[in-house]
Amino acid sequence: MSRAWDDVVRTCGNQRLFCSGDCVDSWLRETGQEHGYVMDLATLWRFAADWYTGRLDPGYTRRDPAAASAYFAEVGLHGAFWGLPD
After folding, report:
1. Distance, CA of 84 to chain centre
2. pLDDT per residue over 51-72, tens digit each?
3. Domain co-membership, 70 together with 28
């Protein structure tokens, strides 16, 4: 995640929903992509539910890195991808 903005088109192009781990594996074989961070749908929902709150409000300021890390941990994200412990 720390390098997501290096190539935001690639980053967004690889955010996908899959029906199962087997579907992820098939996609990886077909595309030659590296295995990245995989989360379940419930975690994705918890993450998305409040991540964008207020973004369209005047005066909005984004979370600083410490607040973003705290939010990631709060919604159940983990591991080096998110800058958090496993």
Report:
1. 13
2. 999 999 999 999 998 999 999 9
3. no
Closest CA to 24 of 11, 12, 13, 37: 37
In contact, 59 and 73? CB cutoff 8 Å = no
Residues 28 and 48 in one domain: no
Whose tokens are 């409000």? That residue is: 57
CA distance 20 to 11: 21
Domain count, the chain: 2
Alpha helices in 8-79 (DSSP H): 8-13, 21-31, 41-51, 65-74
Cα 60 from Cα 80, distance rounded (Å): 28
Domain that holds residue 45: 39-52+60-86
- Percentage of residues in the chain with pLDDT exceeding 70? 100
* Cα-to-chain-centroid distance, residue 36: 10
